[in-house]
Amino acid sequence: MSGTESVAFDTPQRERRGDNFAMWVFIASEAMLFGAIFLVFLVAHIDFGRAFAGASKHLSLPLGTFNTVLLITSSFTMALAHMLALQRRWRATVWALLATSALGVCFLVVKGIEYGKEIQEGLAPLLGLPFRYSGPDPVHAEFFFGLYFAMTSLHALHLIGGIVVITGMIALWRTANPASRLGRVVAVGLYWHFVDIIWVFMFPVLYLINR
Amino acid sequence: MSTEALRPSSYLGEGAGPAAWLLTTDHKRVAWLYLVSLTAFFFLGGAFAVLMRVELATPAGDLVSDDTYNRLFSLHGIIMVWFFLVPSIPATLGNFLLPLMIGARDLAFPRLNLASWYVFILGSAFALASVLAGGVDTGWTFYTPLSTLYANGFVSMAALGVFIVGFSTIMTGINFIVTIHTLRAPGLTWFRLPIFVWTMYATALVMVLATPVLAASLILIVLERLFGIGIFNPALGGDPLLFQHLFWFYSHPAVYIMILPGMGVVSEVLPCFSRRPLFGYKAVALSSMAIAVFGFLVWGHHMFVSGQSAYAGVLFSFLSFCVAIPSAIKVFNWSLTLRKGEITFETPMLYALFFLALFTFGGLAGLFLAALAIDVHVHDTYFVVAHFHYIMVGGMVTAYMAGLHFWWPKLTGRMYSETWGRIAATVTFLGFNLTFFPQFVLGFLGMPRRYHTYPPEFQFWHILSSAGAVVLAVGYLMPLLYLGWSLFRGARAPANPWRATGLEWQTASPPPPHNFETMPVVTRPAYAYDMKGLKHERFSPHREEAAQ
Amino acid sequence: MSFGIPFAPPEASSIAGSVDTLFYALLAFTAALGTFLTILVVFYAIKYRAGSGAERTGERARSLPLEVTWTAASLLIAFVIFGWGAVLFLRREHPPMDALEIAGLGKQWMWEFRHSGGQREINELHVPVGKTVIVSLASQDVIHSFFVPAFRVKQDAVPGRTTHVWFIADEPGQYHLFCAQYCGTQHSEMGGWVTAMRPEDYAAWLGNQGKGDTLAAGGEKLFRALGCSGCHEKSSKVRAPDLAGIFGRPVALDNQQTVIADERYLRDSILDPKKEIAAGYDPVMPSFDGLLDEGEMQMLLAYLKSLSPQAPTKNEATQ
Ligand code: HEA
Ligand code: HEA
Ligand code: CUA
Ligand SMILES: [Cu+2]
User: Fold this and answer.
1) Domain end call among C212, C231, C266
2) Residue C259 DSSP symbol
3) CB contact residues (below 8 A), chain B span 260-289, against chain C
4) What is the tens place of the pLDDT at every residue in B218-256?
5) pTM for the full model?
6) What is the domain extent for residue C277?
7) Which residues contact B18 (CB under 8 A, 6 or more apart)?
8) Residues of C at the A interface (Cβ-Cβ below 8 Å)?
9) Considering only the top CATH level, what class is B3-547?
10) Shortest Cα–Cα distance, C2 to chain B (Å)
11) Ligand 1 centre and the CA of B366: distance in Å?
């Protein structure tokens, strides 16, 4: 037909607009997911602010900050990919996308190191692991770490999803025509920025609260 | 004499075989995939209900044990809500009709549409696995800390099933929103859309924005059960009421997912069989959006006696009364649509009129519940059970039946037996009232819900209700038979057997693979039944058939 | 007349009548509106059935004045019902003074009640007629709900907090007591009877029950056994607040805020002392979380409350 992927659209332009719009709707949906969990965190924080502040100090600020920098850089390379795709410089686009997902992988590795450290220190109240905590109010500190693991792992899952999609996109690069290449870069870009923004909220809430 | 031979261009003729169906991206075939799976779930959930009603015929717990009974109503609720009623009209009729009604070749994302069915099936697999493994005993509400610390069923598995099905709901929602925004035929402005499309739009919005909150609460439950994180566990500093807030923040909007599509169907059927435009079209269209928006603000009316602050209760009560107004507007508009019509009483019309009665009654019972002092007494009694069955079964399921009969010729290219249809509609209506009206009395008397045994003085009303359930079962089994029969033996349906105005009727029955031979252009408002050439034409499906 | 078929629950409390008035008013409204709509629809259906000779010309299919009228009318009626229900509901917050307080504890699957004199009963509750009874509710495990249909009262008992329900029984007799919140396997068996008795009968009944410790006395014993007195006694070496008269009093916290020492505050002070720290004290009090069951908690609270004799029996700030 006229170069659209879905039979429903008659022109690639309309299809691109549809894809883009769909991504925004999806992001609204995701925002409600994270919003709900943030809300739980904030309610708990109102109740147990002191315990949470104490527990928050046991997170590694250097690693967290480093990760924030990584993700912000990846957002930058993602924006670069978008720009290059607009200019139809496909080879460079692929490199920017690769850089983006590489930064994402780095983030996950660092996060993994951080998790490892926390498990070793006995801060992970998961799967019946022993919880050792020396600060005040260990009960609610445990609650804090529960939420910390829930929130960060949910975020990490989203990041993994993003990396998988980018990788898949590059693998299918040759089969796609220019219009759908651009459409995909834009859509994935929106998603990637969204996942970054979630982290940008999570970082201060988890690491910086009452420092 | 196969369908294919007669209509080479029908979507049904595009290859048979399991692969042609299981790998289809045609929205009309995906609708069938859903239709078959949802019907199976309806009868499974109905079978659980029948077992419950039999048990409740006597005050003692003599048929099944208490644990079994608890599993019955939990699975009944879980299956009926998430595996039947939430997807019911959107995933079947909506899927089939939305592109047809707006003059599009398909939904915006056909592959996403098929994927949503597979996700649905994956979720169902978890739910069914939890049934086979021994069931769940938390109620459909999964209240903590019962569900996290004390329940002895397979809670995580069922919760995971519901969680996964949520994704299929979100996928459908996104697909619908994008389709309605970007794929309307030339000339089809927002205020020319059929109300069914408006309600699909409102429903999709709620699906996309509310379902993730359910996902979040279920994730937290599973984390709590599997990983021991104490978010809802008071012993670990958590708060059990937090779960109720999250759950109802989803589930109250979700009840509107479970009624808006029904309202859409009825808004199509009533004008068609009255040969009148829908009264107050704009008010009906916008009230759907109002319901979708205000529906997000009233969740606390499920928690009046939970220990939330009394003043929060007052606020939520107030908002609940506000959210009732758009429904009131619709009821009046539907009734006035009949005025000056030329009314005939085919099966879809009968169902639609029964919907009108039962929904209104259930909605008015909702006002009792929203009135704080009364809710204190009837909360968690059969009064609530009666309220939501009036709306969900009497309202939504009845509307679903209306829609199924109305569009059956379009779906299959066949007519069903009108006589049997009318009999089934009437039996359902009578059986329904016999089943659920006594439950209002029971609730007012103080009969708590989710009770396996009960004091003997309540038995009279329980017997009526159980007897009604048997009649109701007959009412639902009949369409299974005569619709099934018509699938193979029914008379051929013309393109527009009801002389309806919607775009979906402008193409063949059943439609060709990409819906329209020539893409339509719209020049009229919806429901132009009063336009010349339509209004005074008597219609008779059978006459038209004969003419063919 | 009713052939033994019940149509309405007994009205046996001071508020039952007014709740029923609202209920029947709403029922009348529903019946009236239902009848009106039914007649309307049936009338149209007959008059405008296909082939009838009725006049059908004129009029667009909408009418703004009509739409505005019914929207406004529905709003008005809705607000009346809302206001009526809310006013009756808010009485829950303000029990009459001079009440008899009974501790109710829900656990899978029984209700345990303890009268202030220490009398204990399971799945039975004896109360005097004509006197305000406040049941303070706690739960040992999951959420339960205290429900007496004849009194038109219901309140969830939530683990980790104290909730209250009050009523004045005004008709001696035996009434169903249910657990209304689904709580697991034997949810439907979790209940029994509330017996409302004339005050003199109630006094006699209390007298016949085995004399145990009063709730407060039991709490005082616990106060010693758990070592609270070690810090909170005046002679103690640890500097800890004096708890005499604490209940109902405003307490200054170290974060510049002031809270009323209600049941929530006392409960949190014992289970989670670090959450709110009294101004001027070191946060050295250990948490007693896990060392007390709900029943013991109720006794401790009764004891602490007994140290403030003239405090209001139920604090409005609770819940
Ligand atoms: C499709 C599902 C559906 C729908 C549409 C509704 C619609 C409404 N519901 Fe319902 N409800 C449920 C499904 C639904 N409900 C379920 C499943 C539960 C129980 C969950 C559980 O605990 O398991 C429940 C429980 C429930 C409760 C909590 C009861 C309790 O647990 O104690 C309340 C309380 O306010 C309530 C109120 C309402 C109101 C005010 C409406 C309104 O939207 C109704 C509006 C309609 C009308 C009002 C009728 C038409 C109007 C007129 C004829 C004009 C006259 C009107 C006026 C004057 C205002 N519902
Ligand atoms: C959403 C849709 C929905 C639908 C369609 C129904 C349909 C029905 N429901 Fe359901 N119901 C709920 C949603 C629904 N329900 C929910 C959410 C709850 C709350 C659960 C909870 O407390 O957690 C509930 C609870 C509930 C209770 C209260 C249980 C309790 O609190 O103890 C009762 C009791 O009468 C009941 C009865 C019925 C009946 C008789 C039907 C009938 O309409 C069913 C009609 C269908 C049939 C009768 C099918 C016919 C098929 C056969 C006869 C085949 C038989 C085959 C075999 C036996 C193999 N339901
Ligand atoms: Cu306790 Cu139900
Ligand atoms: Cu609700």
Assistant:
1) C212
2) E
3) 274-283
4) 888 888 777 777 778 777 767 888 889 989 998 999 999
5) 0.88
6) 215-306
7) none
8) 272, 274-275, 283, 287, 289
9) mainly alpha
10) 12
11) 4
